[in-house]
Amino acid sequence: MAYYWFKAFHLIGIVVWFAGLFYLVRLFVYHAEASQQPEPAQTILKTQYEIMEKRLYNIITTPGMAVTVVMAIGLISTEPEILKSGWLHIKLAFVVLLLAYHFYCGRIMRQLAKGECQWTGQQFRALNEAPTVLLVVIVLLAVFKGSLPLDLTTWLIVALVISMAASIQLYAKKRRLDQEKLSSSQG
């Protein structure tokens, strides 16, 4: 029975953690783009985004990560023989990348608060795609375990990454053109 409790809370932790990561980097986009606003709007927006980022990271995202990791340890403790599975080692390698991404976001958050981050909204949009790719790979490994159809999966992941990158670029171009159109109509 413990296995099912660990698994349920592991899944809940994953949902909370990823929701936090996705929204956190979206806040970074808005934070970076606030620099384009005139004063006092710029200062007001940056202050508000800083508060939102800290609360999200400390109250939702990091606890979601902690629940995910602790429940994963609980799951492994109920079936220690799973540690011999090659697919789990690969999955854990991707989880380590996800943990690094999480703490890197914390670093960026602190840099934004100090006014030391030079990233653009466009760069943050690209960064926001990383957890999507990690989520897809981790879930596929968890579901398929040792029987992951690598050929099809590899191409699907490549297609997903390419389509996300293309979508980011198209959206950025549309926003830039809309902004130029708005500027020229006002000028």
Principal-axis shape equals flat
Count of all domains = 1
Q: How many angstroms does the end-to-end distance come to? A: 68 Å
The radius of gyration is 20 Å
Encode the helix/strand succession as letters.
Answer: HHHHHH
The biggest sheet amounts to:
none
Structural class by sheet pairing and helices: mainly alpha
Q: How much helix is in the residues?
A: over 70%
Query: Which segments are poorly predicted (pLDDT under 50) over 5 or more consecutive residues?
Result: none
> Helix segment count?
6
Which band does the percent of strand residues land in?
under 5%
Annotation, overall tally of beta strands: 0
pLDDT average, as an integer? Answer: 91
Catalytic activity: protoporphyrinogen IX + 3 A = protoporphyrin IX + 3 AH2
Function: Catalyzes the oxidation of protoporphyrinogen IX to protoporphyrin IX.
Protein name: Protoporphyrinogen IX oxidase
Enzyme class: oxidoreductase
